[in-house]
Amino acid sequence: MLLGLVTCGLAVAGCGGGSRSTDDFGTTEATGYASERLPETLPESQVAAAPVTDAATAISADGKSLNCPQVVAWPNERLRTLYQSGHDGDQMYVINRAEITKLSRECRVVGGQVVVKYGFAGRVLLGPKGKPGRVSMPVTVRAAGPSKQTLATDKMKVSATVPAGNPVGYFSMVRQMSLPVQYGTRLEDYKIFVALK
What we know:
four-stranded antiparallel beta sheet, 3% helix, elongated, disordered N terminus
């Protein structure tokens, strides 16, 4: 199990249920929609041991390309390792390791704001000191404008269930955030940072 945890080389293709968003992105107010629609929960086939990726382009009502704000998980913030107390950094005392493996988003522009519906999914691997069951992890989300100023923040918990006899559990989350758009800026200059912390 330790080898699989250290190398993260387990072949996975599954995702547990996630939080649901009640927003209806079919409103007539919207002037732009993303080309990749986010489901309420991300299906198993979308969570794999692949690099973090996201949907890149939105399409406006007249069919022209309209970029959405980027959703980003930095390498040092998309991984979280939990150690047994007093043994930080010792691989023999790892309880579990969580990793964000998939990012996606869609957006619409309403008045002077962009409404971003974003999703992320990932997995939890048990370590030598881990036990099957429910694993809860903190997630911090920060939206930044073109000048890197913070426009909005959100904190939440995501959970995964690691079944007995299987060292891997999966999580997913879909949320929404509204950001003010400054005159003269591009939507792709705005960023939403997702961190396991």
